[in-house]
Design goal:
Layout lengths: L1 H4 L5 H10 L8 E10 L2 E5 L4 E5 L9 E5 L9 E5 L5 E5 L8 E6 L3 E7 L6 H13 L3 E7 L7 H12 L4 E3 L8 H8 L4 E5 L6 H9 L11 H4 L10 E3 L5 E3 L13 H15 L16 H7 L5 H30 L7 H15 L1
Helix pairs in contact: 3-8, 3-10
This protein binds guanosine-5'-diphosphate (GDP), magnesium ion and zinc ion.
Length: about 350
């Protein structure tokens, strides 16, 4: 079990696993975790080490699965079950007419929203990322990076704390090591944290500093230097000595929202509360008399930028829902049942397992 402990196996997973795969029903399966997803196969952490296993169905980095181990007679190890995800970091797939979700990570406990301190704070990006982070079911943290670089340090920190609206803010420098211990203490053993932020924000450098080794390819590695070195460019779980697990998310540029109602409420709950105070209950919050939103903007309690950002994201979600509806209708027309993809997958795995 030792190796699984370093990949985040904890009481919660232990209970979930023995509930879904009771030893009486399935004595020959073991828990394993998806470290990385490759085309058609996954790299799994098992009790003994790591192994590549072919998969029939889509899995995500961070998934906990039931693994039927291979035999001496040559049968391959196989994933026969999926432990239901307790958190899912997802976004809408880009350019996808079917409006489907891309799962970036499963079963993460914390989302580290990485914000570089050496450029002006992008308020809208921070808001959007916090919405997605809250919506995943994990707890967001804001991690300011490159604290050694900025002369505008206090400015950016203050603005970030203000915009983060109660979310914890950590300030770090991979260069000097400042703030790394505090961050590690917060993440803790048996917890998985996914770092989310724009390219160049310092995610990989932060991971290297936390691991104490250059395992991630960073922005300042020139092409020639990277050769022959073990560098990871994919979304991959990285175990730390203290028992925490890290995950980088390289190449996640835009973050198109996916069914983010819960996240919207967490980030913009104060705005949604105002709606109940407008004079008309069908208020469009534009120029109606007695509009609580417009009042709050004019008396300075609501920032106009935040209001615009909220409305932009709401429009995006409305567009998504229209697309989902028509995609759903198309599926119905083709005879599919409406079923949550993830639930369908879990069910399918269970059924296959029962038949086996
Ligand atoms: N001075 C300083 N530079 C940093 C720090 N963290 C990252 N950088 C630099 O910022 C650039 C982008 O970092 P990288 O980790 O590749 O960003 P990523 O795209 O988010 O993974 C690189 O040139 C790093 O050397 C830091 O704490 N201090
Ligand atoms: Mg990187
Ligand atoms: Zn109104």
């Amino acid at each position: 079990m030792n190796n699984l402990l370093s990949y985040g196996f904890n009481d919660r997973i232990s209970s979930l696993f023995s509930f879904h795969f009771p030893v009486t029903l399935s004595p020959s399966v073991q828990p394993a975790r998806v470290i990385r997803v490759d085309r058609g196969r996954v790299l799994l952490a098992t009790a003994e080490g790591t192994e590549h296993v072919e998969i029939q169905r889509e899995l995500a980095t961070g998934d906990w699965v039931a693994l039927e181990t291979g035999n001496d007679d040559g049968t391959d190890a196989a994933v026969v079950g999926l432990v239901p995800r307790y958190s899912t970091l997802q976004r809408k797939k880009a350019f996808d007419p079917l409006a489907e979700a891309q799962v970036l990570a499963a079963n993460i406990d914390l989302v580290g929203v990485v914000v570089p301190i050496d450029r002006p704070l992008s308020h809208n990006r921070l808001e959007r990322t916090l919405v997605a982070a809250w919506d995943s079911g994990a707890v967001p943290l804001v991690i300011l990076t490159k604290a050694d670089l900025s002369s505008r340090f206090d400015d950016v920190v203050a603005q970030t704390v203000d915009q983060a609206r109660g979310v914890e803010v950590f300030t770090t420098s991979a260069e000097t090591g400042d703030g790394l211990d505090a961050l590690l203490l917060r993440v803790g053993a048996g917890q998985t944290v996914a770092f989310l932020g724009p390219s160049g924000a310092g995610k990989s450098t932060l991971i290297n500093a936390l691991v104490g080794e250059d395992i991630q390819d960073t922005g300042d590695v020139r092409a020639g230097d990277a050769r022959g070195r073990h560098t990871t460019t994919a979304r991959e779980l990285i175990p730390l000595r203290g028992g925490s697990v890290l995950m980088d998310t390289p190449g996640v540029r835009g973050f198109a929202l996916w069914d983010a109602e819960a996240g919207m409420e967490a980030v913009f709950g104060d705005i949604e509360e105002l709606f109940g105070q407008c004079r008309f209950n069908d208020c469009g919050h534009e120029s109606e008399p007695g509009c609580a939103v417009q009042d709050a903007i004019s008396n300075g309690t609501l920032e106009e930028r935040r209001w615009n950002s909220y409305r932009k994201m709401q429009r995006e979600l409305a567009r998504l829902h229209r697309r989902q509806n028509s995609a759903e209708q198309r599926k119905h027309a083709r005879g599919f049942h409406k079923m949550d993809k993830e639930a369908a997958m879990a069910k399918d795995y269970r059924n296959r397992f029962r038949e086996a």
